[in-house]
Amino acid sequence: MIKVNKNIIFSCIVFVVVFLVAEIGVRIKQALVDHIPFTRSIIDFYDPLLGWSGKKLFGDLKTSKSRIMVLGDSFTQGNGVPEEFMYYQPLARAFNAELFVYGAYGFGTLQEYLVLDKYIDEVKPDLILLQFCYNDFINNSWVLEENSFQNNNLMIRPYLIDGKIEYRYPRLFGRYRLELSKWSRIVYLAFAFYDRVMFKAAYEGKIKTSEDEIEDKGLAYKPFADSKDITLEILKRLKTRAGQVPVIAMPVILKQPYLEQSIDVFAKAGIPFMTSPAFALQDLANRGVSVFFKDNVHWNEKGNEVAGLIILQEVAKIHLNVN
Predict the structure, then answer these.
(1) Residue 234's pLDDT is what?
(2) What is the pTM of this model?
């Protein structure tokens, strides 16, 4: 017979009891203070197609007006910006068009393509506006996002891998981490604490991340070169899915070497890429005009308004007929 040490059994029982009491305590505290339902799990935030959901602001599907579809990340989600000031509003007003907007914090280009693929036949847009951010290169690559702390959303998302869409968690042993976090708030908080520590270390230059490698080596860093190819493939799929509907795109952050590669990849995909709104906002900021929130990244009301007017001018230049 196998002899079991009673002290080990007792220690295990004590650990389980203490863990359960702590877990219940954390859930009660979060329910009372943070208004997070006691039984809620991290899995509640996941979307089986997109990874996670965002702002879906769809107009009247029965409208006789022109229809503009807008896809993007947190800049399009627009947290903190009243809807009437969002950058796509001047375009909609000028063309008397109905808006169909989907924007989600941290979305990459593949997720935006999947939104288009899901809704384009329902919306039947006359124009598609794609908002692009430099960190899409990170978020389009599982390898780059796995080694990032600045641009890692710590959520399962779709990635285009060897021409096929796969859903992965961008951390080593990520699936196991996710499964544990689904059932325990304490485990989730422990991982979150670890990520905050690593983010601070990355910010202070104590560890090298994907962003460091990209900014040091550019396309000589193979995962970045691979991500550029992946991004181009996604954009080609997006343009093909759009069919005869014109697609235009714009960056929101001007950062090298991402900007240079963004211009190149959109040119190869045959999608007009409007850099002037971001350049204009950066110029205003350099002259002391408040166009960003306190994070000095996202556009505030003024920034959105200015960008929207410039987008309208750019659309007029390329003679898109939305009516």
Answers:
(1) 98
(2) 0.86
